[in-house]
Amino acid sequence: MANDEAQGVEGDLLVILRHGPHGSSWLREGLDAALVAAAFGRRVTLLFMGEGVTALMPAQQSGPLGQKGTSPTLEMLEMYDIDTLLVEAEALARFGLRAEGLMLSARAVEAKELSVLAATHSLVLTF
Amino acid sequence: MRYAILLMGAPYSSQAAHSALRFARAVAERGHRLEGVFFYHDGVHNAARLAAPPQDEPHLVDGWTALAADHGVPLQVCIAAALRRGLLDEREAARHGKQGHSVESPFELTGLGQLVDLGLRCDRLVTFGP
To answer: What is the ipTM score, two decimals?
Structure first.
């Protein structure tokens, strides 16, 4: 059952990322918060929601504006022991993406699991 | 109850900073403990000491400073988010060879670890953003 799966995801910090890689610094600064928490030994779960799922598109480049890309940061997550990556199933469908095609392994979660996730983490930060 | 505030909205650009300041005062005046205000993302602009709003608008920098003075609330500003937006205290200005500085006490530049610590230590972390 979907709810039981979400129940199994626990941690100190749930970081919800709702913005794409370019256009604003939300994603980058959200990832920074996750990395710092992990560096301090906190158990961190990442949830990519809405437009945030595009952060996981493969073959990203920084582009002509010279903004720092986020994919090198995402590739470092494993080194920081951030291995619970979740993506909002509805957003994946909306953007025509499939969990298997993303640059990192992430589990799709249904909307009804979100409240469970919020309850199983001590702190939730939304970016 | 122990509260903390995370402010991610720039002053005057959105309602976030005004609401956060009013909420902060309400928390303290109700007798709760406000353990700190953390400024991140565009919220770091609230720490700009040179802000000079028109006299018929609330002065947010003065408001935060008064909150710190009246209730001893630490005002912590993310150093990485601040530096890239041109918000430097005297020490950072010297370190980067800049003339003048834009952040001073009671605001203090600090690391993101403080935000995580604050959030986990308090009963409630309330976020204000655009």
So the answer is: 0.92
Query: Measured between CA atoms, how close is A97 to chain B, in angstroms?
Result: 28
Tens-digit pLDDT profile for residues A65-79: 888 889 999 999 999
A3-58+67-126, which class in CATH?
alpha beta
Structure tokens at A107: 């589990």
For the stretch B81-114, pLDDT in tens is 999 999 999 999 999 999 999 999 999 999 999 9
> Who contacts B117 (Cβ-Cβ below 8 Å, separation ≥6)?
A40
Range of the domain at B86: 2-128
Tell me which of A13, A36, A44, A80 to substitute to probe the interface with B (most B C-beta atoms closer than 10 Å).
A36
CA distance A101 to chain B (A): 31
Asked if residues B77 and B107 have their Cβ atoms less than 8 Å apart, the reply is yes
Are the beta carbons of B33 and B3 closer than 8 angstroms?
Answer: yes
Whole-number Å distance between alpha carbons of A29 and A25? 6
